[in-house]
Every structure is written in C-alpha cells, then in structure tokens.
Amino acid sequence: MSAHNKIRSATRMERSRAKAIAFGSFVVVLMVTIAVTLTTVTMGDKKSSQKKVPGEEVSTAIVFAVPVQNYTSILKNCSLTELQYNETMERWESHKMVTLAAPLGTSVVATFAGTVTSVQDHTMYGRQVTIEHRDGLKTVYSNLDRNVNVSQGDRVEKGQRIGSIGQTSAIEFIATPHVRIEVYKDGARIDPNDYIDFPIK
Questions:
Q1: Are 165 and 102 spatial neighbours (Cβ–Cβ below 8 Å)?
Q2: Each residue's pLDDT tens digit, 152-197
Q3: Are 124 and 92 in contact (CB under 8 A)?
Q4: CA–CA gap between residue 108 and residue 139 (Å, rounded)
Q5: pTM exceeds 0.70
Q6: Is 47 exposed, middle or buried (0-12, 13-18, 19+ CB in 10 A)?
Q7: Angle CA 129–81–186, to nearest 5
Q8: How far apart (Å, rounded) are the C-alpha atoms in residues 113 and 64?
Q9: Is residue 195 classed as helix, strand or coil in its secondary structure?
Q10: How far is Cα 4 from Cα 13, in angstroms, rounded to an integer?
C-alpha cells in the first residue's frame, strides 16, 4: 500500500473513531437530559398535588366522637327553647344538652382532644368533668360515677376514657342511668348535635 493510501486509511479510521466518540457522548447527554426531565416532572407533580386548588376549601372542622359508644337510647335530646318535662323535679324546663342512656359503669370518653379544666361534684348534676378543646369549644360530662379516670390539668385525646356512667345527679336521680353531655362555644351553650353525630337509637 502506498504512503498516500495509508494516510487516507488512517484518516478514515480517525474520523470513524471521532464519530463513535461523538455518538457515545450524544447518547450519554441524551440519557442524562431524559433523567433530569423525568425527575423534574415527578417533583413538580408531587408539589402540585400538595398545593391547594384555587377555590377549594380545606376542612378544619372539629368532629367530636360520641361520648358513649354503646348507649342504648337518647333519653333526652337537646332543646334550647322547647320545654321538656323533668320527672324528678316535676317541672317543665329547657334541656340544653343531650342525655344518653346506658347501663351503670358504661365507659364515657372524651369527644375530642383537650385539657381537663375541672373535676367536681355539682350540687344538681352530680360528678362532672369539663374539658377545654380548641377553637373556643368546651364539653361537660355529668352524672358520672365518682371514680373518674382523669384529674384537673390532664391532657386527654379523642376517644380516651374519662370515667363511667354513674347515678350521682340530684335532679334526675330516678331516671334511667345516663350521662349528660353539654357543648359550649366561646362560653355560650350550644346544641351538641352541631358537633356530634349521634346514631339514632
């Protein structure tokens, strides 16, 4: 082979090698670009899914648990204005609470997380536990057994046992064993049905 042909052959080999290197580099760059793009899109989707949709309301409503899971009946429902008859006192009166009937000793639980602010023996309503919740809400549980499971200052969680149904109320002593649940909002007594979904019994 002549010197000229050798030079031409070497040149072709160099060009082929250069093309192979360039192609390899192109493939690497392409793969890196695809990987970066896919990562960016995935992260963007995650961020988008976490963003609040314009006009969409994020629920922060408090939903209370039923204070007696296996109550037998709603002995008396709340009536902020309509009068109900009190058999013990033999008089008609408003009933600003819900009274749940259940056997003596039945567990009573906190309707929502909060702090126990009072454990007392009310002169009319018997053994009573008061729990402060957030957003200005407070619940009061009355006619409990004297041996309650919480003390003033305790932090309780939703559904935590605070006591059991007793027969300590002086104004409804002859009634079926029960617990009285009151709900307050910013100091005003409101209908417990606004926050508790009582199953119909």
A1: yes
A2: 999 999 999 999 999 998 876 666 899 999 999 999 999 998 899 9
A3: no
A4: 12
A5: no
A6: exposed
A7: 45
A8: 9
A9: coil
A10: 14
